[in-house]
Write a structure and sequence with these properties.
Layout lengths: L6 H11 L6 H12 L7 E8 L2 E9 L5 E3 L3 H9 L3 E3 L17 E9 L2 E10 L7 H15 L3
Antiparallel strand pairs: 1-2, 1-6, 2-3, 4-5, 5-6
Helix pairs in contact: 1-2, 1-4
Bound molecules: methionine sulfoxide.
């Protein structure tokens, strides 16, 4: 199945599926399925912060690395710096963790509640330079919507 959704549609869908009566894992699992409808991506999902490490959470795509220290990778850097990172070419990001040789570019946005990083959203694309500033704004809105679940 080929998907053609843009980030704007995903934001609306994620707001619609969030159910605060459900456990976190149920909400994040469906949120990962919504994110996977984005056009031209090969992996999307969550890493959850526990102490000083990120652990693999609900995702869609190939088998991925299960733990990322805050000192490593795009995910660890975004969590440590508490900001979104757009990486147009993963080969040029020092310390990038290559889970899949398909991934060429990525965006990682932290989910922050009361000043604390709770998780990150990671989306990988099979093409260079896939993600825009507009995608960043919308993914940050998605992260904000999800932050109330933590
Ligand atoms: N890209 C990440 C690793 C996780 S995988 O892409 C699923 C990173 O370098 O932090």
């Amino acid at each position: 199945m080929r998907y053609i959704f843009n980030m704007e549609l995903l934001l609306e869908q994620i707001k619609a599926i969030i159910d605060e009566d459900l456990p976190l894992i149920s909400n994040l699992s469906n949120a990962a399925a919504v994110l996977n409808q984005l056009e031209n991506i090969n992996w999307c999902g969550f890493y959850i912060k526990v102490k000083d490490e990120l652990y693999l959470g609900p995702f869609q795509g190939d088998v991925a690395c299960t733990r990322i220290p805050l000192t490593k990778g795009v995910c660890g850097t975004a969590a440590r710096e508490k900001k979104t990172l757009i990486v147009p070419n993963v080969n040029e990001f020092l310390g990038h963790i290559a889970c899949s040789s398909l991934s060429k570019s990525e965006i990682v946005t932290p989910i922050i509640k009361e000043g604390e990083v709770k998780a990150v959203i990671d989306i990988d694309a099979p093409v260079f330079d896939r993600f825009t500033k507009k995608d960043q704004e919308l993914l940050e809105s998605i992260a904000l919507a999800l932050s109330k679940l933590f």
